[in-house]
């Protein structure tokens, strides 16, 4: 496997996605600084990384020494200035354009000229995020999938002004962590994968909401009829109903395509806190 020696990555946001990206990068030899706004968020992120690595070592797919070395390559901080000397910065904060633009506006003033600024957004056009900077040619989408240590795909997304050099650097980074990349040449909202899964989840929810079929049978139809590893409603529970609701809303706002308009049931579930596995209940109950 490619090992990134002497390369520094900054990950902004220590949630599920940010900590996962930090983990796979550290395993690949990157020196990683993981930044969040509170010490508690950083502690949760580091604990999640350590638990993930422990599962790999328990299965025998990762040596204990390698796991310890990966943890040792990760430092945590609440200071955004720690990203100043990074070669690549990956933003993984909440999926809202104004929040992401605020982060990129600050990073633009901090990082070195040759740094690549990447966003892990799953639905927001890269061009809108890049517009908050003075270097849109250095901004690129790197959409990893959850759980990052297990999922092998990364969508590389061009904004209107993303340069070839930034795209190549993002590909080198993603491939160094063991990911296979696809390139999205036009940053329509939702890119490729989020548009596909959002359309499927929205329609599956409508079928369930109107009583056409049970959640179990809708998911079983997709698994046995289409060869999907997991049905769309179970996928929504795994990803987070709230996350997919925001994604569908973003795509609908941009496209005004009715197939992405979220059903009332999704909004009610989010209002009730029934957002999937992380809350204990979504389309299915969880212990």
From TrEMBL:
Similarity comment: family membership: Belongs to the 3-hydroxyacyl-CoA dehydrogenase family.
Signal peptide segment: 1-24
Site (Important for catalytic activity): 143
Keyword Magnesium: no
Record's keyword annotation contains Nucleotidyltransferase: no
NCBIfam families: PRK07819.1
BP-aspect Gene Ontology terms: fatty acid beta-oxidation
GO molecular function ontology, one term from the record: 3-hydroxybutyryl-CoA dehydrogenase activity
Organism: Streptomyces aidingensis
This protein's pathway: Lipid metabolism; butanoate metabolism
Gene3D superfamilies: N-(1-d-carboxylethyl)-l-norvaline Dehydrogenase, domain 2 (1.10.1040.10), NAD(P)-binding Rossmann-like Domain (3.40.50.720)
Protein name: 3-hydroxybutyryl-CoA dehydrogenase
């Amino acid at each position: 496997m490619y090992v990134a020696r002497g390369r520094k990555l900054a990950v902004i946001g220590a949630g599920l996605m940010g900590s996962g990206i930090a983990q796979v990068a550290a395993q690949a030899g990157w020196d990683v600084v993981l930044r969040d706004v509170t010490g508690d968020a950083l502690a949760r992120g580091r604990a999640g990384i350590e638990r993930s690595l422990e599962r790999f070592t328990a299965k025998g797919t990762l040596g204990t020494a390698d796991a310890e070395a990966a943890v040792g390559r990760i430092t945590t901080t609440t200071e955004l200035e720690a990203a100043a000397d990074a070669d690549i910065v990956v933003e993984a904060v909440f999926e809202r354009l104004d929040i992401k633009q605020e982060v990129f506006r600050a990073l633009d003033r901090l990082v070195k000229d040759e740094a690549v600024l990447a966003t892990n957004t799953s639905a927001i056009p890269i061009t809108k995020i890049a517009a908050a900077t003075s270097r849109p040619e250095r901004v690129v989408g790197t959409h990893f999938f959850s759980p990052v240590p297990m999922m092998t795909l990364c969508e590389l997304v061009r904004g209107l002004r993303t340069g070839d050099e930034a795209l190549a650097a993002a590909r080198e980074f993603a491939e160094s962590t063991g990911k296979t990349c696809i390139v999205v040449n036009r940053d329509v909202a939702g890119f490729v994968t989020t548009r596909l899964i959002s359309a499927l989840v929205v329609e599956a929810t409508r079928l369930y909401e109107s009583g056409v079929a049970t959640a179990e049978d809708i998911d079983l139809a997709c698994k046995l009829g289409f060869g999907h590893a997991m049905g769309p409603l179970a996928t929504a529970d795994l990803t987070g109903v709230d996350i997919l609701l925001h994604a569908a809303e973003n795509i609908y706002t941009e496209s005004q395509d009715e197939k992405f308009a979220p059903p009332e049931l999704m909004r009610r579930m989010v209002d009730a806190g029934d957002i999937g596995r992380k809350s204990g209940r979504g389309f299915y109950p969880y212990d």
